[in-house]
Every structure is written in structure tokens, then in C-alpha cells.
Structures
1.
Amino acid sequence: MADLLIRGADTVLTMDDARRELAGADIRVRGGVIAAIGPALTAPGAEVAEVIDATGCVVTPGLVNTHHHLYQTLTRAVPGGQDALLFGWLRSLYPIWARFGPEEMFTSAQVGLAELALSGCTLTSDHLYLYPNGARLDDTIAAAAEVGLRFHPTRGAMSIGESAGGLPPDALVEGEAAILEDCIRVIDAHHDAAEGAMVRVGIAPCSPFSVSRDLMREAALLARDKRVMLHTHLAENDEDVAYSLARFGCRPGQYAQDLGWTGDDVWHAHCVKLDAQEIALFAHSRTGVAHCPCSNCRLGSGIAPLRALRDAGVPVGLGVDGSASNDAGNLMAEARMAMLLQRVARGADAMAAREALEIATRGGADVLGRPDCGRLAPGKRADIAIWDTRGVESAGSWDKAALLLAGPTRVRDLIVEGRRVVADGRMVTIDLPHVIARQNSLAARLAS
């Protein structure tokens, strides 16, 4: 296979083990893997099929998104939920989501994945926990294959409806035996444990307020039997913690530990309200956290203790969360918000721009169990974002590598497994205007 050569980048932020920053460097890609990084890699060797000129650009690893609900791109800025806290917001949207089907799941995933790609994301998880009208996790996996992003979908579920004291309407919950059976089906059909995998599948009961303790426990046992990862929402806001105390007689961290939901094969979304003891538990067990700052702001949930999590050694990545609670899916903007909120909470020196970008790249990859991604080094996957810093956003910047302070939030070129997904700021794998038109048509139908 002929090589791809990225030539003459002003700066390459490698996020490798030494956190090297290379000036005037090239990157040679062979067979979906980074073959070499350094100056003047145009010497004779393997044939070069494509050269990408990175003059005036900063090159980073592709960003990694550790929490999303892709289906929600069809319900952005819904009037009934614009100004509600988490539980009220969910109750306003459940009846709309109940009208989804396979086409809504597929199209909304395409839109959400394209939005992520344009913001520099090469690897994303997704948490799909409702399956109305014949929808399946397979619908989103098919969308990711067309868009070309590396994908970590999770088979979510809700099993405790309103009549049994849960939050979701009974029409959106499933029987627990059927949930576990379908988890086995999608893992057997789609999960790839190999290095460089384009699809890995996780198991993800939605939350403590929508599934039983039995399902949480059984899901953990199944995940370990199948050697896949576990994901759920935890300690998202005060309502969430109050529910755990009232229903289970313990805080969320203790609930997770009691049911086998700690360890390096587990990551929890939000964790805004973790206390010091819970942070220590997560650090000791290497339990991951998906930090979703924009959604936490939008729903008034609070500022997650990101600095304390990092200082304790908890693995942390970033998540844009669902587009009904963000309402955007721009991972570069998410990284900037993460940095700014820590400064608001703890002072201007609480988090540097490069640390926030590290969380958005190698941090997220490590949370998802993907040390083959999230850094630029020989032998790692060729997931690469190229940012043009010659535009107005960076004009006058003295440190163009400080992208989160003064830089573009839209990528110029995006490469996944050595293949271009975005070229010159445009999607090249799908007809995005056509997909957007279909999305808007589906949203109008839901609204009416």
C-alpha cells in the first residue's frame, strides 16, 4: 500500500509519552498506521500516493469523544426542555424520542458524526439507550461506517418505567432478559477487540434511575465475560445524588462499587457531584470519567471537579453529550469550555490549554481503552487532525499551538486510519447537504 505524507506542518503536537512538540515536521502514514514523524521525510522509500501540504497548520492527534447520544441531533433546542433541569428535561423529551425509528437513528447519527468530524474528532463513543419502533444499535453502526469515524457504540437500556418508580415512560423500557440477549447479539455481530479496530461495542444501562440493580449487576458480569467495556451516567446533578440516597441508601460511587461498576474497563459520564471519597475510589480502581462541561452548563448541573480528578490520577476524557442538552457537538469547543470552567472555579492557573487538549486526545483514548489512538507516534493509528492557523481566529497569536486560546474550532483536514474524512473543511465520505436536508425533514415531521 502506498504511503500518505503530511508535509511541512508548522507544529506537530504529538501527545506522545514525552509530549513532544515538533516544528516543521512531516508525518508518514503506511497501512493506516503512523510510520514516521520528523523533518524531511521525503527521502526515497515507499511510494507516496498522496501528499498533504500542512504549511501554516498545527497538527494534532484526532480528538476523542467519550460520551454522546447521537440520536439527539434530531431534537436540538426543543422548546419544552430549553430551560429545565435534568429530570424535567428528560420528561419533556421522552415522548418525542418514543416516535423515532430506524431512519431517525441512522440519519441523526450521520449528522452527529459529521459534526464531530468537522470539529477534529476521529474516535467517538455513543450511548444509545432507547430502541423504539424497531430501531437497533446496528443503525448507528451503519452510519459510522459510512461517515468513516472510529466508533465505540454502547448498547444502552432502560428497564424501570414510571409505574415502577423509574423516570422514563413505560413505553420506552425493555425487559431485562431481552436487553441482555441483545447485548450478546450486537457484541457477537460487531465488536472487534483487535488493535486498530474501527468498531468496539460496550454495554451501557442508562442510569441508576432507569434500570434495576439486578440489571446493573448482570450487565457487569456479561461485559467481563465478553471482555467489553461498561458505561453509564453517574452523579450528574443533585437530583441524581438525592435519588441514589433515597432509593439505594448510598452515594453514587458506593452504588457503582457495590455492583461491580469500577475498574479500568468502566467509564462513567458526568460525575459532576463526586465527593473526595468517590474520587479516591475512582483513582484507585482506574475507573474512567467522561467530562461533559457544556451539557453540565446547559442543564445547570454544576462544574465537575476536573482538576481534582486529574490530580488524583482518575482517567478523564471529554464528551459532548447529546445534542438535545449541549446543543452542539463540537469537541474542540468542548475542550475550551473544560479549560475555562476550571479557571472559573479554581483560578486562571487551574488548567492550561495544552492540558485540556491532552484530555481531548490521549485522555479520551485511554478512557476508552484505546492506547493505539490519541497520540502521534510511530506504530500508533493514523488518526490525525490538521488545523489551519492562518485564519482570522489565530491572527496575531504568538503561540499558535495554544489552539484552545486562539485557534480554529473547525478542522481543515481529518484522517482516520490513514483515510481522509474531511478535506479542505468539507466532508468527503458522505453527501452532507443531502443528509442535513433529510435530517431537517425528519425533525419537522417529529415537531408536527
Note: The radius of gyration is 21 Å.
2.
Amino acid sequence: MKLNELKPQPGSAKTKKRVGRGIGSGKGKTSGVGVKGQKSRSGVAIKGFEGGQMPMYRRLPKRGFNNIFAKAYSEVNVGRIQQAVDAGKLDAKAPVDAAALVASGVITKLGKDGVRLLGNGELKAKVEVTVAGASKGAVAAVEKAGGKVHIEERKADSGKAGASKA
């Protein structure tokens, strides 16, 4: 094979359409955008406009809502903790908290409200876990293996609904 024989795989490289290069090209003069008007100008997009008819996004009913009080946890299953212990990424004798989980790669990004432990999977290692929240199944799985689960106390946010004004 020589350098002058190199060429891309068939179908992998598309040739760019050359517009505005004379009427013989088929895409000359107005370059396929018609004459005058808003849609022939650059930088214009009429998304969702249906010619004066009520658009689809306004015909459909609204559904659901966003809960502004929802907690944003990073979720970790007990089975994933066992995998990390087996791989040697987590030390079973050291306390397992959010920082240890991030350092070991069990979770990549820490949630705004901390880590929540879930009960999916099996745990054999005796670990002491400190998390922001845990399901009943997760607590049962950790205690069955001989470990403990500590739930962190949340700091009361001032200015939230229900906070005392004293």
C-alpha cells in the first residue's frame, strides 16, 4: 500500500453539497432556500409553528409536576459495596462514608443531599457505613453481616418551610 493509494472506506465520507455555484449546479442563485421572506434569511428557525393552527405542544394536556422538596441522593446498593471490598478498593475495617465511596470509585458524583444506601445485592463483609439515608432492607443486610449503619443528622436549613423564626 502506498500513500497515494489511501482512500476512506466506501460510504464513510460524504461529499459536502456546494451551493451557490451557478444555475447549472442545481443549487445556484438562492442555494435551495427560495426567494425572500423570513425563512430565506440566516439565523431563523420557526420551531413548533404550524401555520397558525394551534401547535401540538399547546394541544396536549400538561402532566405531572416537579417536587421542589425532593432529595437528590447518590444511590449505592450493598452489593456494589461488596464488589468494591472484594476488588480491594474499599477497606472493610475502615469506616465507609461518602468520601471513601467517591475515592474508591463506587460513586462518581456525590449527590447534593449525600448518599443513600439501598438493599439490592448481598453483603458478606462486616462494614461500618455512615450515610445520609438507608432503606430498611439495606440496614438489615449490613447488620446481618455483622456491621453497623450510621445515619448522618441533616443540618436544619434556615429559611425553609417549617423552620423556626426564633
Note: The chain has a mean pLDDT of 89.
3.
Amino acid sequence: MIHQINFQSFFADMKSRLAQPLPGETAQYKMAPARRLTLTDFYESGNKNPHRSAVLICLYPHQQSIYTLLMLRPDEPGAHSGQISFPGGRFESHDVDLQATAIREAQEEVGIQESAVIIAGPLSPLYIPVSNHLVQPFVGFLEERPFLLKNDHEVREIIETDILWLLDHSLKSSRTFPEFNFTSMEAPYYNLHGHHVWGATAMMLSELEHLVREIIKQ
């Protein structure tokens, strides 16, 4: 396992890699729940009115490595109650584009300043059937660890982690998760410091993991 990553080199390599064809569903579906629709299924379904959304995957230097952050959502009515996610949300009419949505939501939810974010590029979009969201993830770099300010109405806990955590196969497993409509679903998950990250967030992490492995050759 590599214990140190040069931030500037990693940023340059990631930005270059994101400009090339992405692994997309090949990587995403390694961590997909059972019965998961593909993006092709979504487009072929004729659904013309998904909620357009975006999330921000922040990467920043910390403890001689690269860290990212996720957040635990509050227990409240809705499809994603109590789940782990990246900062993000729906596109709003005043947003210039989905990249602006991702940055705005990150500021609103965890206090990351817009001026501090350098967008390296997008990951592959992902459709979330249970809430009818078409989500565009963006990878953003910060030159230093951010001062975080949690929005207590939208975030129960902010979780920071070294991205090398993604490369530990022992932290992946599978179990049955309850869904908000009183059904259940078998799904793989990442064990993030005792939290089980599954569903769309795990699929985004899986694509990020694929790229990190390419860059640091692990």
C-alpha cells in the first residue's frame, strides 16, 4: 500500500484521465444493487422528466495523502433517508449548469467555498430509479483541507476519509438493505469507518476507485 501521494501530480493525472473515455457502467456496476437499471435502460424507457441533479466529489491534501468527504443524511421521510452520499442536490433555475449545482450544494450542505473548488472533470452520469434522479458527479480539487460547516437540516454527520480506503478489498461486502417502500434489496457496500455505503454513492465510488487504481497503479 502506498502511504504518500503527491497532491499536485495526482491532480494533474486525474484531470488528464477525466478528459479521456471513462469506465462508466463497467466500473459502476461492480457495486450495483440487484435488479439495477442501466443508463441505457433509462434512456430506452422513454422517461423524459428525471430530476436533474449533481454531486461534488471533493479531493484535497491531508496527512500526506488525498482525502475526500461524504455525509450521512438525516433520518427523515424520503427514498434516501439515513444514507451516505456526496454533497449534492437538484438543479435549480438560477444554476448556470450542473457543475454550478454541485458546487452550490456543497457550499450549502458542508460549507465548501465556491472559490476554493477547482473542477477536474465529470464522472459518468447515473440514474437513480427510486427517486427518479439523473445525477452528474463532478470531481473537484481543493488546494487545502477545507473548513467544514455542517448544515444541520440536511446533514447528520460529515465523514472524511483517505481515498486509499477505496483500495482495501476487505472493506467491501454485501447485505440486504431496507428500502423506503417497505421492501428490501441485496446490494454490495463499502464499509466506511463503520458506515455502509451502498446504492448510487457506492457506484460512483466504484468508478472513482477504478480511476485511482489506474493513476497510482494499485
Note: The two ends are 8 Å apart (CA to CA).
